[in-house]
Predict the structure.
Amino acid sequence: MTQPLLQVKGLTKRFKDRTVVRDVAFSIAEGSCAALLGPNGAGKTTTISMLAGLLQPTSGSIQLLDQSKPVTDRRMFIGYLPQMPVFYPWMTGREFLRYAAELAGLAGRDAVLKTDEWLENVGLQHAASRRIGGYSGGMKQRLGLAQALIHRPKLLILDEPVSALDPAGRKDVLNLLQRIRLETTVLFSTHVLHDAEEICDEILMIREGEIALQGKLDQIRREYSEPVIRIEVGGDPVSLKWMASISSKAFVRQAEITGNRARLTVTDVEKASFELMADAVSHQVAFRKFESGQSTLEDLFLKVVQA
Amino acid sequence: MKQFGLFFRKEMLEMGRSYRWLWVPLVFLMLGVMQPIVTRFMPEILKAAGNMPKGMTIMMEMPSGAEVLAQTLGQYNAIGILILVLSLMTMISGERQSGVSQMIFSKPVSFVSYAAAKWMSMISLITASFGLGYAGAWYYTVQMIGPVDTAAAVKAALFYLLWMWFAGSLTLLFSSLMNPAAGIAFVSLGAALLLSLAYGMLPRYMAWSPGALPQISAKVLLQGSGGTGTMGALLITILFMIIFFVGAVYMTQRKRARF
């Protein structure tokens, strides 16, 4: 289960005088789900296009391993869904899916069977005979997933699969991904951290074309998460005055206070929360919210991105 | 080979659903039929126009069948080529521009099959449209004007067909090279026009140019043979079509998607 499926070394892409991706190296283990995180314009789509074989890297190597041996044409083993999938609007959903299946090498009867199977898997069986021109964004995304998976690829590559969808469409696609990742290795890019946390076990953060942080999600959480207390108080002058004073407490390592809200990075959550509450009671501060816990992936992301 | 069939079927389906299989042959048929009919009725048309001074008589010698057929080919050279370029220009660039190519080319597809299917469907559309139009022109010429030598008519048609294939290949090459449709149309039409003009102005130096083919085909009709440069022009044209094809395969592979 832990042998690598995809190995990327020294991947670099230059467009004229701009280096969009610089010396990126990582590997993805078979059976894992990796998220490529980064702000807009960090080079996510460029990296993914190179992995999918649509863009020639300026330098570096991309190897897909099948039974520990690198393959010659990795497109056979990859399913790819672009950021905004575009289809032939004059084809019906079934026609396109069958076309995709046959292009991927499935023979006639097999292609027909798989087409029907996947139409059902992504819930498009009732729209299958309609022209794709009339599909909604969510339906297109699901059809895109079906065409990427129809030949049972070893690696599924998705570029921002849910960013453009409404909440209902997002949930549909995420549920599908949950199911798919049990059978296939998945790599997807996103700038929505919540999605990454929900389905992935490995993350790669990239910033300005370089890998800023990579590793297993739980490991990163353990290593980088810090004890954090979030407080919200009432708008009365007594409470606000108390808020302004708390940043000078000994256990506070870092404080961000805006009006009646504060986010404190502390040394010890338990001790800090007892002291804060006792202090607040003695000053007659009206709490609206008191939350103690760990910093989230989002906090880490912002820290990495803004570093 | 299997992929070629797939791509080709898809192109045919697309040409059908976008009605290109309807309007291109129809326009060609109209263009072809018009020439003999207009020629035959020209005296009546002039008479009916009615703004002729009194007492004036026009003597018009009815042209021969071969002449009318040669004039028809002249019609194709202007409007026919325009129609072809317009209907073929986005065949490769359109898929790249819209983004479908990203999904197609991330599958294990062969670029040669892809381009070959585009070529084959271009040749099918041109052959069927021109064949229909020319047959119509021939029929009406024989009915209304006079007989045409069959061997010469067929030979002339084949030369002309090669010229149209050449123009289609040129359009597909530019379609693989650049994205804006207007640019593709402009450059392809311009190149075809320039070739044919260059032959008209410097026939001695351009005798082997593909631009000589329309004239060769007219000469075959009127004089029975295409002249000394025929063989050369034929070979050069086929050679260029092969070069264009290889160029288009290379360019589609290099510019797989728009970035």
User: Anything to note?
Assistant: Chain B touches chain A at residues 2-3, 6, 10, 13-14, 17-18, 98-100, 102-109, 254, 256-257, 259 (CB under 8 Å). Chain B has a mean pLDDT of 90. The two ends of chain B are 30 Å apart (CA to CA). Chain B has one domain: 2-254.
